[in-house]
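Human: My hope is that you can spare some time for a protein that puzzles me. I am handing you a single protein, as its sequence and its fold in C-alpha cell form. Could you go through the record with me and say what the backbone is doing? Take your time, and here it is.
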Amino acid sequence: MPRAGDVAKRSLDLVLGTVAFTVTLPVQALTVLAIRTSVGRPVLFRQERAGLHGRPFTLVKLRTMLPVDAAKGLLEDHQRLTRVGRFLRATSLDELPTFCNVIRGQMSLVGPRPLPVVYLERYSPEQARRHDVRPGITGLAQVSGRNAITWEEKFRLDVAYVAHHTVAGDIVILMRTALSVLKRSGIAAPGSATMPEFMGTSTNAGDA
C-alpha cells in the first residue's frame, strides 16, 4: 500500500507537471522552430534511461547535439553540441518535454537524475539505491553543484535524498532549482562540454 507521502508526491508531480507542460507550450513551440531551422530533424532526443527499480523507460528532451559522425569529425560532445543546444542546456529549456515523462509516472519532478541503462552494472550496491525512487527532472545533486561535482558526490547526494525525501523538501529543491537555472551554474563539468561518462567508482571493482 502506498505511503501517504508517496501519494502526496505523486499528486504534486501530476498537478505541477501538467501546469508546467501546458504553460511552457508556446516556449516549446518556439524552441522546436529554432532547432528545425538550425539543425533540422529530429527535434526531439529520445534515449532509454533507468527508472524506478532500474526499469527502463524512454526519456524525451529537446535535441541539443548533432549525431555522431566520424566522417565529419563529430565524435566528442563539444564537437556535436550545437549553438542552439548550448543555449538550451544553459537555460534548461531542453528539459521541457520531460514533463511528459512526469505526467506518465515514469519520472518525478524531484529525484535522482535518470541515467543511461548501461550504468546499472557500474554502480556499487550503495549507489544503486538511487533507483529506489522515481528519477527526477531535478534533484538534490542538481542544486548542490549539478555537473560541477563528481559522479561519486552526485550519487552520495542521490542516496541521501532517497533516505530522507519529503514533499516539503521537494518544494525547497524546486525553488533552489529555479535559482540555479537563473544563475546558469554547474552546466558542465570542468574541462567538458557536458559531463564525462560514468565508468564506475575505481575503489569498487564491481563498478567498472
The helical segments are 4-23, 25-38, 77-80, 83-91, 99-103, 151-164, 167-183. Residues 4-189 form one domain.
